[in-house]
From TrEMBL:
Belongs to the zinc-containing alcohol dehydrogenase family. GO terms for molecular function: alcohol dehydrogenase (NAD+) activity; zinc ion binding. PANTHER family: ALCOHOL DEHYDROGENASE 1-RELATED. The keyword Zinc applies. The keyword Cell wall biogenesis/degradation does not apply. It is an enzyme of class 1 (oxidoreductase). This is alcohol dehydrogenase. GO terms for cellular component: cytoplasm. Residues 19-351 form the Enoyl reductase (ER) domain. It comes from the Eukaryota. CDD domains: CAD3 (cd08297). SUPFAM superfamilies: GroES-like (SSF50129), NAD(P)-binding Rossmann-fold domains (SSF51735). The gene is ADH1. InterPro entries: ADH-like_C (IPR013149), ADH-like_N (IPR013154), ADH_Zn_CS (IPR002328), ER (IPR020843), GroES-like_sf (IPR011032), NAD(P)-bd_dom_sf (IPR036291). It comes from Exophiala bonariae.
Length: 357
């Protein structure tokens, strides 16, 4: 299948070892395998997961050298011989997500629990991701971006949006109920506040600083609690709910262990704590006595399957989600990591590839 002319070399951000440094350099453009597509990435969001990967925060090692990134939005420019038009077309706008590929045959894939696949490929972690101009992804796993959607603004939906939308669904919170979003001013949190609103939920934002407070409030949080200045988070979160009994669900998207050890104390009886954030070496903790007497549920949630991805993108295409983002060039990724490490990013940073208009 012929498509646009593809260069043999491209710009990428690469690390050779855990801890970096990042090297902005030219590397070869890979060729798609039989069931893969080559995507000319135009924009890529930067997720805190990418920084965890550089820092070697998690027990699973990354591939090395590694091109990070898993919120890549671009155009399909080549495909393998087994990819037909009904799977993915040349010229189509697609997203390269965290789940780059799954086997589609294991017991979990068969039940549409693709994130639980026993042999997954993870973009920007076990395979090269979207911090390069041309990325490879499984044709059956790329997200199909609806027509007319801006590729810069939509890129953070490809991980942050899908993940929080899935987490909110898993929480079982119903329209009219209240969820607490812990990390509400960050990349995932700022989208969680909006998906919650679009799903008919009230939300309480928890994060720190005036900028994040203003952002969470503007995006729809009905209350904001500053974790750095509150003298009693548990009391303040409960007090922010109408009847003082606490939120029906808590969505944990912070990158700090402490809130993972507090949420069970303020979630409402029969409520659900959804664990999404992945701070290094952290443990979830809950008091047994109170948890039993309140019959609470603690559940983890991990990205989303292809259906969740389509639904999360559809919310965006309908104008229900506005991504708060700033754009910088691919070469400026180190600056983004610095700000992220310092907790100074309200919303998301999006990288612009050298050939994006
Ligand atoms: O599938 C998954 N489970 C999944 C998918 C995508 C991302 C998990 N993640 C993980 C990332 O690896 C990361 O650990 O979710 C976490 C959040 O990612 P992010 O939204 O990209 O990070 P961010 O933009 O840095 O936002 C984190 C926010 O948490 C706040 C910070 O101020 C920041 O705004 N925060 C912190 I640090 N401590 C807090 C606390 N004690 C807190 N907010 C409330 N209370
Ligand atoms: Zn991510």
């Amino acid at each position: 299948m012929s498509g646009p002319k593809i260069p043999t070399e491209q710009w990428a951000q690469v690390i050779d070892k855990v801890g970096g440094p990042l090297q902005y350099k030219k590397i070869p453009v890979a060729k798609p395998g039989p069931e893969e597509v080559l995507v000319n990435i135009k924009y890529s969001g930067v997720c805190h997961t990418d920084l965890h990967a550089v820092n070697g925060d998690w027990p699973i090692p990354t591939k090395l050298p590694l091109v990070g990134g898993h919120e890549g939005a671009g155009i399909v420019v080549a495909r393998g011989e087994l990819v037909t038009d009904d799977i993915c077309k040349i010229g189509e706008a697609v997203g390269v997500k965290w789940l780059n590929d799954s086997c589609l045959s294991c017991t979990f894939c068969q039940q549409a629990d693709e994130p639980l696949c026993l042999t997954p490929k993870l973009s920007g972690y076990t395979v090269d991701g979207s911090f390069q101009q041309y990325a490879i992804a499984s044709a059956r796993h790329v997200a199909h971006i609806p027509e007319g959607v801006p590729l810069d603004e939509v890129s953070p939906v490809l991980c942050a949006g899908i993940t929080v939308y899935k987490g909110l669904k898993e929480s079982g919170a119903k329209p009219g109920q209240t969820v607490a979003i812990v990390g509400a001013g960050g990349g995932l949190g700022s989208l969680a506040v909006q998906y919650a609103k679009a799903m008919g939920l009230h939300s309480i934002g928890i994060d720190s600083g005036e900028e994040k407070k203003a952002l969470a409030t503007k995006l729809g949080a009905s209350a904001f609690i500053d974790f750095a200045t509150s003298s009693d988070i548990v009391k303040d979160v409960k007090a922010a709910t109408k009847d003082g009994l606490g939120p029906h669900a808590v969505i944990l998207v912070a990158v700090n262990e402490k809130p993972f050890q507090q949420a069970a104390e303020y979630v409402r009886p029969r409520g659900t704590v959804i664990v999404i954030g992945l701070p290094a070496k952290a443990y979830i903790r809950a008091p047994v006595f109170e948890s039993v007497l309140k019959m609470i549920r603690i559940q983890a949630s991990y990205v989303g399957n292809r259906q969740d991805s389509e639904e999360a993108l559809d919310f965006f295409a309908r104008g229900l989600i506005k991504v708060p983002f700033k754009t910088v060039d691919l070469k400026d990724l180190p600056k983004v990591y610095e700000l992220m490490h310092a907790g100074q990013i309200a919303g998301r940073y999006v990288l612009k590839m050298p050939d994006a208009e």
